[in-house]
Amino acid sequence: MKLIHKEDCDIDTVIALQKKIIPDLHEIFMKRYDILRLIHYYQPVGRRQLSSILGIGERVIRGEVALMKNQGLIEIRAEGMNTTAIGENTLEGLSVFIHRFKGLRDLEEEVGERLQIKKVIVVPEMIQDGEIALKEIGKAAANYLKSTVQSKMIIGITGGSTMAAVAEEMGKEQGKFQDVIVVPARGGLGKDVDKQANTIAAKIAGKLGGTYKLLYMPDNIDKNVFSTLSEDPVIKDVMEYIEKIQVLIFGIGRADKMAIRRGLSPAELQDLAQKGAVSEAFGYYFNRNGEIIREVNTIGVSLKKFKELKLVIGAAAGAEKAEAVVAISRLNANLVLVIDESLAREILKIK
Asked: What CA–CA distance (Å, rounded) separates 38 from 42?
């Protein structure tokens, strides 16, 4: 048996030893982390709601929250439980440990090698809650974006639920990036204002302390109408900024879902399915190999521009988006991909 020297006893070794000596440690640790994380996201929250979400008896929940209260991690009020500053700091500090504890570093490397892209960031998935997964993907993508922002940078961002989560989870930088400009990378799509690229661009600019431009056009505008409107000085100015984007952050969507949002006819939907369309981006529908299946009228960053960018951040949640992610990864090897654990494992199943 190989001896383990002190200098070799890093965090991975410690985790491996703990799992051998205390086999039930993993279950207890994850359960308590899940409870604390849920309180953080749903606060103020009651024990009954936690019990329902986790599928754990209320009596067990009562014991766990009592322990957390004694440790100063949470406070219990009439309206429900909240995390304290100590609890928030604990969650932040545990994020790196959880990553190693679940072996996500190896998973990231494996997905990155499979897709042949620059970097993969996998968010741990411990609760079957799509809302929390979206928030944590948004936070991870926001943190990576902030780590790359430089003076006078022009940032492009698309719309959608995932990008709205990025804007929501991005912490304020108090004017740190005053000379940064954020622009919508695509026109508006759908009726939900909070998920429009314009709204998201303005929110991110506000949190970075920079400025923003707005694109007052729907994404699927008729090309003839666009030719006329594009001569408007304001719109022309924004389109010029879009062509100067240095970093793009975008959500990855499935072809069928996006086609429905764009109002394609049943015949067109069937045609896309028969031709193997799995993803939609930048005015095109792609098959799993990243080959163009169909072009649509769209306003914003071009496919040519996307392929030229040195820094692109794509984010997606849910195992059902695996084929869409694979398709988009074929377009630019500089892609930094932010996904959840279930999606990462589903990507590896694709031959």
From this structure: 6
Answer whether 0.90 is exceeded by the pTM.
no
- Report pLDDT digits (tens) over 158-196: 988 899 999 998 877 656 777 899 999 887 655 668 888
**For the segment 76-106, what is each residue's pLDDT rounded down to a tens digit?**
988 899 999 999 999 888 877 788 777 888 9
Residues 6+ away with beta carbon under 8 Å from 36: 68, 73, 74, 83, 87, 90, 91
| Assigned domain for 154 exists | yes
In a shared domain, residues 91 and 108:
no
Is residue 84 domain-shared with residue 126, that is, in the same domain? no
Find out whether 313 and 141 touch, Cβ atoms under 8 Å. yes
Longest Cα pair distance anywhere in the chain, in angstroms?
77
From start to end of 22-143, where are the E strands? Answer: 74-77, 80-83, 119-123
State which of 70, 97, 124 marks the end of a domain: 97
